[in-house]
Amino acid sequence: MLEKWFKLSENKTTVRTELLAGLTTFMTMAYIIFVNPSIVSATGMPVNAVLMATCFSAALASILMAFLANYPFALAPGMGLNAYFTYSVVLGMGVPWQTALGAVFISGVIFLLLTLSNIREMIIDAIPTALKLAISAGIGLFIAFIGLQNAGIIVDNPATLVGLGDLTQPATALAVLGILITTVLLARNVRGAILIGIFATSIVGYFIGVTKLPSGIVALPRMSDWAPVLGALDIKGALSLGFFNIIFAFLFVDLFDTVGTLIGVSERGGFLKNGKLPRANRALLADSLGTIAGSFFGTPTVTTYVESASGVAAGGRTGLTSLTVALLFLAALFFSPIIGVVPAAATAPALIVVGAMMITSVTKIKWDDFSEAIPAFLAIITMPLSYSIATGIAVGFALYPFVKLLSGRGKEVNWLVWVLSLLFIARFIWLA
Length: 432
Fold this sequence. Notes:
The chain is mainly alpha-helical. The protein has 21 helices and 4 strands. Strand 2 and strand 3 form a beta hairpin. Helix 3 (about 30-40) packs across helix 18, helix 6 crosses helix 13 and helix 19 runs antiparallel to helix 20 (about 390-405). The longest helix is centred in the middle third of the chain and has 27 residues, at about 245-270. The radius of gyration is 21 Å and the shape is globular.
């Protein structure tokens, strides 16, 4: 049956290899079970409800990837997008979380329509590479900044806006230790380093009074815990927000994050044929359907995880790997008592480390070409400093075509970039 579904022999793999690859991928991305509820609950959404939504949306999207595309790519609510959802949209703009979930739903529907047409390729081809790379790096800085804040390492300062926190506080000291533990594990190439780092930091936290003992180890998932967010999205309210205010940012970041991840992991796994990914539309279909379902379940945008590369490196070649990840996410639901006691000081290091991973894309930017480098840099630096991913994207697009034009290189700019630039400038004027 598995041979028929996943064509194991054709892909030169075995059931054992695929299962181990799935476990490897899960171990490297399971931190999202802790981190997503930690971030999203700041909107007022119940932690247990978001935890269930996280596991169910990750499981469903990974199952869709397994059977629609037969690729070893795992999906879950995206880092960066959950931060944008929480800190920029809900807390920054004052949008109710139900309406923000409606915006996620609409972005998923638009992504689905783009996937079913050729418009997706047109948009991807039009966007400058420098800005694609800048968005990923900027989100990395933003996530790391949030992690430093949650850890108490960076705090408010009336004179300088931000400053160093009190490192002698138990929770802050624990977070610093967590950064050290996680970094050493990553440096030693330990599989599941981020997840192990969260567990180890939480255990140490018990001895200094930061981590509380769980009420149990295993518990049956209860629909009553999930009920506050299940189906609570407000689509009508989201439509009144305006496309370029919120919905576009969800769509844009998900679009390029997903495509970049698919291409990067596929290149490592040898899935590309003549530079293109066979069944790419099916993989993107799984991503968009995952986002639509995730918004109904009660979580921000679902996206393909770059941690899938760890499973590919372990030999994963088919959808059986992603199916294994899906089943492990469902199994995690039964251990919610343990997950619920993980303190913010233990998840903050994961945010900082993931941010460090995401910023590596800056190495591919042509820093010796200022017409590329300066718009990219401003997009990157604006995200954490303005506490808004959307603002960083807007700054980069608003500046890029004008720099090219006034540098005598206007022909390098696609007409679609000009359209987006003018729309973003209009957005800045309107917001003012």
